[in-house]
């Protein structure tokens, strides 16, 4: 969505992103929930990227998700190709190294991935109607712990995402339930990613993930201890290294929130460069709402004299356009 940032921009290693403890979003005291909303507002008005602490997702589940993710990517190529994404009508399953180009004009991303979504049987009316990204998942047949771990993690993150959306509503001085209709029947995607180390002899401009903004509402990223995520600072024209902080997720706002808020909250440019010499694994969860929900400028986000910058669009229309753009 955003303009291309200068890739040769100066880089700094400052942890310039705030840590927001969201545990009080579960408080029965409205004032404590509102206080989290205020903290979220400051983070969202700045970069739209923050570390999320106090999220309540058990560390044991997180460790299992990483273990299963590594086991999946360690499988022989033919095993992974047996559940490759093109075999699915709803973009589920394995994505080959270089399968996506997130940054227009750059070389393909040096990452391999795996897509998981809401599990729907073939005879579900939404699947029979051919709705975008609706249908069954593809699962590896010889990793018995994989599916239960991913299903449990998906459910935990879906709940966290909806909780954060209530916090986001508070941050915008809206009713806490403002985004509830959007959160029903979600089109969320869980994505597993493996970034091999950057190559010394790589084509100019090759990255793990090219500079991009996220398509959906809210992204909740689990990253390992290797590092490599970079967030663009538009004013300073440099990349902030969003190094891992144990026990936190990195949360960022996607395009839909930028559209809702008329760019008051931004969908910020970010990228991955795995210069560590090690394998990197990450697990972004794209909390995306109801496909039929129409995202339009929130009236209170419109300052006097401003006009909406974006036409209303349904969640499904926007996602389809972004998939077309990055999977040429
Ligand atoms: O792997 C990461 O750290 C970020 C991945 C990402 O930005 C994405 O999949 O949209
Ligand atoms: Fe992203």
UniProtKB/TrEMBL annotation:
PANTHER family: 2-OXOGLUTARATE (2OG) AND FE(II)-DEPENDENT OXYGENASE SUPERFAMILY PROTEIN-RELATED
Catalytic activity: L-arginine + 2-oxoglutarate + O2 = guanidine + L-glutamate 5-semialdehyde + succinate + CO2; 2-oxoglutarate + O2 + 2 H(+) = ethene + 3 CO2 + H2O
Ranges of residues in domain Fe2OG dioxygenase: 186-289
Family: Belongs to the iron/ascorbate-dependent oxidoreductase family.
Cofactor section: Fe(2+)
Name of the protein this chain belongs to: 2-oxoglutarate-dependent ethylene/succinate-forming enzyme
Classification via SUPFAM superfamilies: Clavaminate synthase-like
GO BP annotation list: ethylene biosynthetic process
First-tier enzyme category under EC: oxidoreductase
Matches recorded under Pfam families: 2OG-FeII_Oxy, DIOX_N
PROSITE patterns per UniProt: FE2OG_OXY
GO molecular function: 2-oxoglutarate oxygenase/decarboxylase (ethylene-forming) activity; dioxygenase activity; metal ion binding
Pathway recorded for this protein: Alkene biosynthesis; ethylene biosynthesis via 2-oxoglutarate
EC number in record: 1.13.12.19, 1.14.20.7
Keyword terms of this UniProt record: Dioxygenase, Ethylene biosynthesis, Iron, Metal-binding, Oxidoreductase
Top-level taxon: Bacteria
């Amino acid at each position: 969505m955003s303009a291309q940032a200068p890739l040769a921009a100066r880089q700094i290693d400052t942890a310039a992103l705030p840590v927001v403890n969201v545990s009080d979003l579960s408080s029965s005291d409205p004032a404590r929930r509102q206080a989290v909303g205020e903290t979220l507002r400051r983070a969202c008005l700045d970069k739209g990227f923050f570390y999320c602490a106090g999220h309540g997702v058990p560390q044991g589940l997180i460790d299992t998700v990483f273990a299963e993710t590594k086991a999946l990517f360690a499988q022989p190529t033919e095993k992974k190709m047996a559940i490759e994404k093109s075999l699915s009508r709803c973009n589920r399953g394995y994505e080959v190294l270089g399968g996506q180009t997130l940054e227009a004009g750059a070389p393909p991303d040096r990452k391999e991935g795996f897509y998981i979504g809401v599990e729907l049987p073939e005879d579900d009316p939404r699947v029979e109607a051919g709705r975008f990204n609706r249908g069954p998942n593809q699962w590896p047949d010889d990793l018995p712990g994989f599916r239960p771990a991913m299903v449990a993690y998906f459910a935990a993150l879906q709940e966290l995402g909806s909780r954060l959306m209530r916090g986001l509503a508070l941050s915008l001085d809206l009713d806490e339930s403002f985004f509830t209709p959007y959160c029903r029947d979600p089109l969320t995607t869980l994505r597993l990613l493996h970034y091999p180390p950057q190559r010394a002899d790589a084509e100019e401009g090759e990255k793990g993930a090219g500079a991009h903004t996220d398509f959906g509402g809210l992204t909740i990223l689990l990253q390992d201890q290797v590092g490599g995520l970079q967030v663009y600072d538009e004013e300073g024209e440099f990349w902030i290294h969003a190094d891992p902080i144990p026990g936190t997720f990195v949360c960022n706002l996607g395009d839909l929130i930028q559209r809702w808020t008329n760019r008051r909250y931004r969908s910020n440019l970010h990228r991955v460069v795995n210069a560590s010499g090690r394998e990197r694994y990450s697990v972004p969860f794209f909390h995306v709402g109801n496909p039929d929900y129409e995202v339009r400028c929130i009236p209170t986000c419109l300052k006097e004299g401003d006009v909406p910058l974006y036409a209303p669009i349904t969640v499904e229309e926007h996602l389809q356009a972004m998939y077309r753009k990055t999977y040429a």
